[in-house]
Amino acid sequence: MGVAELLLKRKKELSEKNFNEGIIFRDEYKIKEGVIETESGLLYEVITMGEGVKPSLSQTVLCHYHGTNIQGEVFDSSVQRKKPAAFPLENVIKGWAEGVQLMPVGSKFRFVVKPELGYKDREISKELGPKSTMIFEVDLLGIL
Length: 144
Prior knowledge:
Elements: H1 3-29, E1 36-37, E2 43-48, E3 60-69, E4 74-77, H2 78-81, E5 85-88, H3 94-100, E6 108-113, E7 134-143
């Protein structure tokens, strides 16, 4: 077996492991009190409900966020960088775009994003492999 075949085998095994662990995690998470599941399968809970307006897909939002895998390992965090980030909602992963549109400005939500609404089978980092479920805590600071 050559290097390319070994890498493909490794990715397939890792994808299956991440996918199956994600299903178990999401099934356990969605029965927690206060967790809401959307039609697409996005899970979210309200940490703080703001009173501002909700953004639309065509808008750019200013957020503080903290993203981890289901083991709690951070893969991206504006909180750690101590600098909020601006994103056009139409340019982010589906789970983020859907979830942030549910948030009035001033809110903080936690999202559990299944791979189909995230990075699918792409390996983003050592913390976020193919078919990974992601957890984001998002503070919606404003609409730009």
